């Protein structure tokens, strides 16, 4: 049984929000023996004590996933056969309930029963089988409780014996309270199975398809190719990929790894670079699409992306993937290796990945670019190596040591800047590491203290060389930039008291964070920038289950409150206090309403603080549509940044989740959001019709004469400001107008919209299907650049999010075969950057993933533990909508279009 059991343990995957531990074979054998010898009829509770109510947030899904989630929420050991749960789906349980009531609801309609042993183990079995569990079966599985051996609680009658092995805690997105699912907040989740079936090779590819994430300027390709000033900042995130929820720029989205901050990376050093995180090491991704400053820090404005790494694994896993475009151009290779070991007192996991990708040249996609001279790339060549580690070990009774590490290095080579007289080559190297370690103390059954320290650094060393067309070097420069992030924090978790509807839980803590920024540039210009920041923070959170189903109140199955607050003191921007209030109400079993209000405060990043370059702007010329139309006039555009101040916001969300018991396996969620962002750091859109747009008037300066214009501009030139002549303009002599696209604090931005998610799991014959979808409808993004100025809406314009974007998938599985087909939709929008508005068509692409599990078919020899997967991205190679002003000669919008076209890959996964 040992080898097969070990493989099966490694195969276990989360589907909804927990981490678990596979027991050692000796412990498993003892549990199985006990299960077969002392199984007793179900006992719901001790007759001498009231049954305890737990909070369950289990969606309708596969029974396997539900039982695992149940084991965490109810602090139970659950034992069952893989054959018993195969192709079975559970009902949803989203309420306060006893462990027995919740399990009975999960199993209703499945034909299965359960028993509780004298040691408290829950056995799920098929009454039609002679034996629920066979010790020789290689397919036994555990759904385990959270906590440690000191806090596993049982409502069922037991003999007092407890499992001796430690068990991992739930990593919950949206709460500092360990193991507490916050029903008041909207969370979108991708588990390991979703990741594998997506067909993507990198973390940024996975997140770019998220409808809530606007790729413009925050993603590789969009940064290198997109037009300057188009809603997001071209070149600020050069050769990196940040998550940009709601299109508020990636700096307004907080990206975490295992619930902890990582140092910002890339050329801009203002946001976490998700491309540095190896996808093969990711267990799940959770997106909190709501402000969470009171929970994680003042800058979680648009939401939080929590990337949770694999940390609990027995055995070894090798992944080998090769992909290529079906047209000429680009191929990629990925190799990853993971090792893990779990024992009674802890676990250890390590994973390494190597990724290599060719460049995609403009000449490989002539239909996506205007004629150009030079050697320009759409996508650079990339080579990346990464390593992740995790260790947990119980060093004494109730005391656990943990440590996590992430290190990654990337080498990039990009040819760009091709003009009629020169080309450019940029070769950045990005490296990053993040280390954290700490201790957890269980000083009572219900209270835990965690003390942790972390340090991380992101660094970019890049060189740029400009060549003449004959190959000779014109000029070169070297840019070295780094940011180091160090922190120490303490967090106390526990149950304050037991209310009729459940436990009132709390978390409180404090942290001290230091960031250090350093940049040195030599070559074209000489810069030496250094700055640092200290942040002192205290925070607290309460989760209060006020009313529950056992109280028999009409139209109140559940009523919970979530309260949180955070105080941050910045060494350079003063202090801020940010509260968060949430409520969850279930009038009936199938329906849950939720609402939240919060505030946020985002201090400019270190890079943003120094980016104004001593007040010297960049200068470029461009022809703009003349006032009133009828031709063009030459305009000087100011680029760069002004002196910046903090941003503030108010966030409001309200929504519901509906999971009808009459339609087993179906769920739908709707969430309305409104973010009122004041003093937002942004730049005016690069709009050649700006002289005719009343809302952009504050960014336009009209001088009475060219002499007055030169009196304003010449001092900048004398100080070394760069000047680029574009658009056929070769002199400053005739210019009298300035358009300012420097980043500055504009008055306000009000963004609102609706998120829709749904999921339906069902069977047809012996085939299992899951239909799922995720879409976002943006109602408006209203910008007010100055008090009293006309407001303007940027939804559905080039460089900004569209009003409707979605992704839907259909999964099918039968025996060893599985397939997933996905459709991606981007609504049409308007290009307002030219002399007249131009409509851009909607864009739809299809993806396909097909896998075959040799293990389920052969289960012997070399095929044991082997799976093969074929994937195709943009299967039908849809024609991208033409966008004339996309930038850098591109005639497509890199925020939504992948220039690779159809991309196919084959992956082999071998578990040892």
Defining key terms:
about 900 residues, mainly beta, 22-stranded antiparallel beta barrel, five-stranded mixed beta sheet, 12 helices, globular, disordered N terminus
Q: In this structure, how is the largest beta sheet organized? A: 22 strands, antiparallel, barrel
Number of helices: 12
* Low-pLDDT stretches: 1-50, 130-168, 222-237, 418-422
Helix content: under 10%
Principal-axes shape call: globular
Describe the structure.
The chain has 912 residues and is mostly beta strands. It is globular, with a radius of gyration of 28 Å.
Summarize the entry for a quick read.
Helix content is 10%, strand content 48%. The protein has 12 helices and 46 strands.
């Amino acid at each position: 049984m040992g080898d097969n059991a070990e493989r099966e343990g490694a195969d276990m995957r989360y589907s909804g929000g927990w981490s678990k531990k596979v027991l050692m074979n000796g412990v498993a054998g003892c549990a199985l023996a006990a299960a077969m010898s002392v199984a007793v009829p179900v006992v719901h509770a001790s007759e001498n004590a009231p049954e305890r109510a737990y909070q369950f947030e289990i969606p309708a899904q596969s029974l396997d996933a539900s039982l695992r989630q149940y084991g965490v929420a109810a602090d139970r050991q659950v034992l069952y056969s893989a054959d018993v749960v195969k192709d079975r789906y559970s009902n949803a349980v989203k309420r306060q309930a006893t462990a027995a009531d919740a399990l009975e609801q999960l199993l209703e309609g499945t034909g299965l029963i359960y028993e509780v042993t004298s040691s408290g183990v829950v056995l799920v079995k098929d009454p039609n089988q002679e034996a629920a569990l066979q010790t020789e079966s290689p397919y036994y599985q555990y759904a385990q409780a959270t906590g440690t051996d000191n806090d596993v609680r049982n409502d069922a009658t037991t003999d007092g014996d407890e499992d001796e092995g430690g068990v991992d805690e739930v990593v919950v997105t949206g709460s500092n309270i360990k193991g507490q699912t916050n029903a008041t907040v909207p969370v979108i989740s991708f588990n390991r199975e979703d990741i594998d079936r997506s067909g993507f090779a990198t973390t940024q590819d996975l997140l770019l398809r998220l409808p809530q994430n606007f790729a413009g300027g925050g993603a590789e390709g969009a940064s290198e190719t997109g037009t300057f000033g188009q809603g997001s900042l071209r070149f600020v995130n050069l050769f990196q990929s940040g998550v940009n929820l709601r299109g508020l720029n990636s700096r307004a989205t907080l990206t975490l790894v295992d619930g902890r901050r990582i140092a910002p990376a890339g050329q801009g050093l203002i946001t976490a670079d998700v491309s540095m995180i190896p996808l093969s090491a990711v267990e799940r991704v959770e997106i909190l699409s709501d402000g969470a400053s009171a929970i994680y820090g003042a800058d979680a404005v648009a939401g939080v992306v929590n990337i949770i790494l694999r940390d609990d694994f027995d055995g070894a896993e090798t992944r080998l993937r090769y992909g290529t475009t079906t047209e000429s151009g680009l191929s990629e290779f990925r190799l990853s290796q993971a090792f893990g070991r779990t024992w009674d007192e802890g676990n250890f996991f390590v994973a390494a990945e190597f990724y290599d990708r060719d460049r995609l040249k403009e000449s490989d996609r002539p239909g996506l670019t205007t004629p150009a001279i030079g050697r320009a790339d759409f996508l650079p060549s990339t080579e990346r190596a990464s390593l992740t580690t995790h260790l947990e070990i119980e060093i004494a009774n109730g005391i656990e040591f943990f440590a996590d590490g992430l290190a990654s290095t990337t080498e990039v080579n990009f040819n760009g800047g091709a003009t009629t007289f020169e080309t450019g080559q940029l070769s950045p190297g990005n490296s990053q590491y993040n280390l954290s370690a700490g201790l957890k103390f269980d000083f009572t059954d219900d209270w835990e203290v965690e003390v942790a320290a972390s340090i991380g650094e992101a660094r970019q060393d890049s060189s740029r060389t400009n060549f003449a067309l004959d190959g000779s070097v014109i000029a070169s420069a070297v840019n070295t930039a780094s940011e180091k992030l160090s922190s120490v924090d303490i967090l106390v978790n526990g149950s304050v008291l037991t209310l009729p509807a459940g436990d009132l839980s709390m978390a409180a803590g404090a942290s001290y964070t230091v960031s250090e920024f350093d940049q040195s540039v030599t070559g074209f210009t000489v810069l030496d920038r250094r700055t640092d920041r200290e942040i002192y923070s205290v925070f607290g959170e309460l989760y209060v289950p006020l009313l529950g189903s056992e109280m028999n109140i009409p139209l109140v199955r559940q009523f919970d409150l979530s309260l949180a607050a955070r105080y941050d003191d910045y060494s350079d921007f003063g202090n801020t206090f940010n509260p968060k209030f949430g409520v969850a109400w279930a009038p009936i079993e199938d329906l849950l309403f939720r609402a939240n209000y919060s505030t946020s405060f985002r201090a400019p990043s270190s890079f943003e603080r120094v980016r104004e370059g001593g007040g010297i702007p960049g200068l470029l010329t461009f022809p703009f549509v003349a006032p009133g139309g009828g031709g063009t006039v030459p305009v000087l555009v100011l680029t760069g940044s002004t002196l910046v101040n903090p941003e503030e916001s108010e966030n409001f969300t309200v929504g519901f989740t509906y999971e009808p018991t009459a339609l087993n396996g179906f769920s739908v969620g709707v969430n309305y959001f409104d973010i009122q962002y004041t003093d937002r750091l942004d730049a005016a859109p690069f709009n050649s019709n700006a002289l005719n747009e009343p809302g952009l008037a504050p960014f336009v300066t009209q001088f009475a004469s060219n002499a007055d214009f030169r009196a304003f501009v010449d001092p900048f030139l004398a100080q070394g400001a760069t000047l680029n002549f574009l658009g056929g303009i070769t002199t400053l002599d005739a210019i009298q107008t300035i358009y300012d696209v420097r980043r500055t604090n504009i008055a306000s931005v009000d963004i609102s919209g609706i998120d829709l998610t749904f999921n339906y799991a069902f069977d047809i014959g012996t085939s299992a299907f899951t239909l799922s979808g995720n879409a976002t409808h943006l109602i408006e993004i209203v910008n007010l650049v100055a008090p009293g100025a006309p407001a303007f809406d940027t939804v559905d314009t080039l460089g900004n999010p569209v009003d409707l974007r979605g992704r839907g998938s259909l999964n099918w599985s039968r025996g060893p075969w599985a397939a997933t087909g996905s459709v991606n939709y981007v609504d049409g929008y308007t290009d307002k950057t030219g002399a007249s508005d131009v409509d851009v068509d909607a864009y739809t692409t299809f993806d396909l993933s097909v896998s075959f599990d040799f293990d389920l078919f052969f289960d012997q020899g070399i095929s044991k533990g082997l799976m093969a997967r074929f994937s195709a991205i943009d299967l039908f190679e849809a024609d991208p909508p033409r966008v004339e002003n996309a930038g850098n000669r591109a005639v497509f919008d890199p925020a939504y279009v992948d220039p690779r076209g159809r991309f196919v890959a084959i992956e082999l996964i071998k578990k040892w």
